[in-house]
Task: inverse folding
């Protein structure tokens, strides 16, 4: 198999066994790798468990049956493939949402995992004591991590790098150890597999880290064709104004002013979509005052990463990475903190402690509105003044959450459970329990339909219709109309499933599409694929993932949005007066998908070659 190492590492932490298995080529032809192959394996695992009398809805996210999968794809680690430095993490069930767990990260870990000899690592069972997994040149060993338990992600990474040499480390911090429901996995110190609480699943298994090192490289089937096709694709990326200029110059935070000007930058827990002071926390301001240099993932030419510092004062950080757009929004605009210095500090703590910045900021914002409404008794806060705009409270809340101390034990549950506990479930700005990111769908209607129908919950990167609705990529469409959005959402969700199975960076899709991916993947793998073949593959992956979440009880009742977005018109900004009229878009979407009540029909599954 070209583009693959051809091997899966299966590790059972309950009995300490390690097995090497082969990639199934026929499965790879249908699901590629990354998210797709993981989804297939999770479905097969659920079917096997059902035969033992263990059903999906009974699986405890912190229990021994909640497998954790680290996966790469045929693009990962292939030099020359556009932005090939990512990997995908999935778990059968998210501790935050109860739906499927899914996260994605850049840096070096994905390529280094392949160089260590494996396309996938499947973690089963639970260890009684802290351990880490070391994989070097095709050999794996479970090692004692008792001296690492309790350490932050920076210390853990540096200690294991000193032990192993040239390597990449993916690990959890105190948040994962303490089962914070939105804990993430941090690799290479500042890159996060951030969403759905995969770090908490890793913590429940007492798995502190995975270390990968090696010198094996994936082979390409047709070198000359690949050079030709990848050059065409990379040239398009360099010539594109966003991937060739905007992202390298200002990083993802270039979107702060863009989305604010569209009236869709959620402010103070989504009470409005416009902040007149947003430029104070923009990518332009970050670059002007706090940027040290750009930083890139393995093999990346876009270099959107930020290396930043706060030179002095109470939020001093002499070296950090980020914050990216979503982190600036969640820790800043959502909480009313309009000052980059505490945002940089809070983001740094999230990396150090292993916390998803989106869910963290959104949960703090939810708590701030609960306090504003008098729903949280003062004694619960234990002296933390959770007022909108309170910078010190923002930073304090992050570390309290990681250690489950004081009011942090409530924040650690996520906004959905927090809002329910204090009597206002409508104030959790989440879908299926996953906090939505930095785009208010009242002003960008397609992203609202995507949030509602995204399998893992309130997720923008499942189907980033912000590209056509705001950036005009691949064409400009009206963000304020519901017309035609169902077709756009379906297409973006299907293609994104392909990219996350390839596995490479979604930012490439600002410049290249399925017609560019198909010849590159054909050259890498030796399997001839067309753009239509890839889109069918993406549709297959998305539908199988939906079958899985149906097993957990999710259907049309969960494909919705918070009441605020459906009923409360925006009060100011370019989208003033807008709400989301979801029902019409969703009905059209279900028809295009071949779903009934949020469930794929048997006819649709047969059409896609999915065997139940």
Result:
């Amino acid at each position: 198999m070209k583009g693959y190492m051809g091997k899966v590492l299966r590790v059972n932490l309950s009995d300490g066994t390690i097995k090497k298995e082969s990639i199934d080529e026929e499965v790879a032809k249908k699901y590629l790798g990354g998210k797709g192959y993981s989804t297939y394996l999770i479905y097969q695992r659920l079917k096997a468990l059902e035969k033992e009398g263990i059903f999906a809805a009974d699986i405890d996210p912190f229990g021994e049956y909640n497998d954790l999968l680290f996966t790469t794809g045929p693009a990962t680690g292939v030099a020359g493939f556009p932005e090939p430095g990512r990997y995908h993490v999935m778990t059968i069930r998210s501790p935050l949402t109860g739906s499927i767990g899914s996260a994605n990260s850049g840096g070096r870990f994905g390529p280094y995992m392949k160089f260590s000899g494996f396309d996938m690592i499947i973690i089963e069972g639970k260890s009684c004591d802290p351990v880490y997994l070391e994989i070097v040149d095709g050999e794996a060993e479970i090692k004692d991590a008792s001296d690492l338990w309790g350490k932050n992600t920076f210390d853990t990474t540096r200690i294991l790098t000193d032990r192993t040499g040239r390597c990449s480390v993916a690990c959890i911090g105190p948040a994962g150890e303490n089962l914070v429901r939105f804990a993430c996995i941090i690799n290479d110190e500042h890159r996060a597999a951030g969403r759905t609480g995969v770090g908490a699943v890793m913590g429940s298994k007492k798995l502190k880290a995975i270390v990968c090192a090696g010198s094996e490289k994936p082979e390409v089937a047709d070198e000359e064709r690949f050079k030709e096709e990848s050059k065409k694709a990379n040239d398009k990326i360099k010539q594109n104004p966003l991937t060739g200029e905007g992202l390298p110059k200002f990083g993802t935070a270039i979107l702060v002013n863009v989305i604010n000007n569209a009236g869709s930058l959620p402010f103070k827990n989504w009470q409005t979509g416009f902040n007149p002071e947003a430029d104070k926390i923009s990518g332009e301001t970050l670059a002007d005052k706090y940027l040290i240099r750009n930083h890139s993932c393995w093999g990346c030419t876009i270099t959107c990463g930020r290396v930043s510092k706060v030179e002095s004062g109470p939020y001093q950080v002499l070296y950090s990475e980020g914050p990216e757009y979503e982190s600036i929004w969640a820790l800043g605009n959502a909480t009313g903190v309009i000052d980059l210095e505490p945002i940089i500090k809070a983001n740094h703590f999230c990396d150090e402690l292993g916390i998803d910045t989106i869910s963290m900021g959104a949960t703090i914002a939810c708590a701030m509105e609960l306090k504003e409404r008098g729903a949280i008794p003062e004694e619960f806060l234990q002296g933390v003044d959770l007022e909108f705009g309170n910078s010190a409270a923002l930073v304090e809340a992050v570390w309290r959450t990681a250690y489950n101390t004081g009011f942090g034990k409530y924040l650690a549950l996520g906004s959905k459970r927090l809002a329910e506990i204090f009597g206002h479930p409508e104030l959790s700005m989440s879908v299926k329990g996953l906090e939505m990111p930095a785009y208010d769908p009242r002003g960008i209607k397609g992203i609202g339909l995507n949030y509602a129908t995204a399998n893992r919950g309130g997720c923008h990167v499942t189907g980033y219709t912000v590209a056509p609705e705001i950036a005009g990529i691949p064409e400009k469409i009206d963000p304020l109309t519901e017309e035609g959005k169902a077709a756009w959402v379906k297409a973006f969700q299907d293609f994104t499933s392909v990219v996350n199975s390839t596995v490479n960076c979604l930012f490439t899709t600002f410049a290249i599409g399925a017609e560019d991916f198909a010849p590159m993947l054909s050259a890498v793998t030796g399997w001839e694929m067309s753009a239509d073949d890839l889109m069918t593959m993406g549709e297959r992956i998305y539908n199988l993932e939906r079958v899985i979440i149906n097993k957990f009880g999710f259907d049309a009742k969960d494909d919705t949005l918070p009441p605020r977005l459906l009923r409360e018109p925006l009060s100011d900004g370019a989208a003033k007066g807008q709400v989301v009229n979801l029902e019409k878009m969703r009905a059209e979407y279900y028809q295009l998908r071949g779903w009934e009540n949020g469930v794929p029909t048997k006819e649709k599954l047969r059409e896609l070659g999915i065997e139940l």
